[in-house]
């Protein structure tokens, strides 16, 4: 039953419903649905009711491949390009500072463990992998791992992947809290006000009809197909342009047409897609699998934790020093650690729709920059 695709989807949908209901009708209303859906996904996956990271379902792969980029497309249809001028540059600076914090974290974390004993000859490559994944998401992780053939060291590779999944999920929870907590300790002005939030919420909750919903789904599916085809074409002529950047561009162009803006359902589809993506992020947070690595499990988890912790402290310290918007700090950090999709989810969760586009752009930047920094660190350490 737990391998049945329909059963898995039913459980995921139920968890999304429960997170929304609990956040509206219980004491849990003080936390966001995005946070709760991650926690519920992790709890259910670790209980064995649905597959986890060690035996992922094809359903999860489909969600990562199609639903996550679809969420970006649907939410970008409502983005106001004028907001990028105000928030884009601060987000870029915060993202680059976060990348610097990641590199510092990798070097420090290596000194806290016996890395040659834990990782063997692959220690430099693994340091590069972690630099890449915590600069712009997991796409960079596999790029470095494949180049250095780390995947042949099954136990260590699995342990690092599991630790990465756990820390990424935990960091999503932490970054959801950063704007609220830090604003109390160090109140700082937002880059853009939230005067339009009420309008956005109303539009998210407005009724939709089958015609608008089907039109949005057709446009979304067509854009995903076109983005992948164009990415393959560009690759064939020697230009490695990620499909997510093409999808982002198409969404931004379409979003400026009044005919598209009048259509209902894009924000609802976008938020549901985000929740579906986040519940799978939670499912990948598998605690038990890390124990299977053996005696080095604690060292691997410590290594991973220290990298993200130093990254976070460095970025928060810079935010404190330069009096940055805490939401920008949190979203930039999430773009580093989790990539564009989780950065977008965080922007929506903290009700900063003005930061959706900057979050996507720096997340997309990280998909390329992370690989370069990963190879740089690996090379400097002797890989």
Task: Break the fold down into its secondary structure elements and pairings.
Blueprint: H1 5-25, H2 33-46, H3 58-76, H4 82-111, H5 115-119, H6 123-136, H7 138-147, H8 154-185, H9 197-205, H10 210-236, H11 243-255, H12 258-261, H13 266-283, H14 287-291, H15 297-322, H16 326-337, H17 340-349, H18 356-380
Helix pairs in contact: 1-2, 1-13, 2-13, 3-10, 3-11, 3-13, 4-6, 4-15, 4-16, 4-18, 6-7, 6-18, 7-18, 8-15, 8-16, 10-11, 13-17, 15-16, 16-17, 16-18, 17-18
Quick recap of the structure?
The protein is mainly alpha-helical and 383 residues long. It has helices at residues 5-25, 33-46, 58-76, 82-111, 115-119, 123-136, 138-147, 154-185, 197-205, 210-236, 243-255, 258-261, 266-283, 287-291, 297-322, 326-337, 340-349, 356-380.
Helix run count:
18
N-to-C SSE string, H for helix and E for strand:
HHHHHHHHHHHHHHHHHH
Structural class from helices and strands? Answer: mainly alpha
Q: Give Rg in angstroms.
A: 20 Å
- Helical fraction: over 70%
Amino-to-carboxy terminus distance: 44 Å
Strand share of the residues? under 5%
Largest sheet: none
Number of strands: 0
Anisotropy-based shape: globular
- The number of domains is 1
Q: Give the integer mean of the pLDDT values.
A: 84
Enumerate the spans where pLDDT stays under 50 for 5 or more consecutive residues. 194-204
Spell out the key features of this protein:
single chain, 383 residues, mainly alpha, 77% helix
Notes on the protein architecture:
This protein is mainly α. α1 packs across α2, α15 packs antiparallel against α16 and α17 runs antiparallel to α18. The radius of gyration is 20 Å and the shape is globular. About 3% of the residues have low confidence.
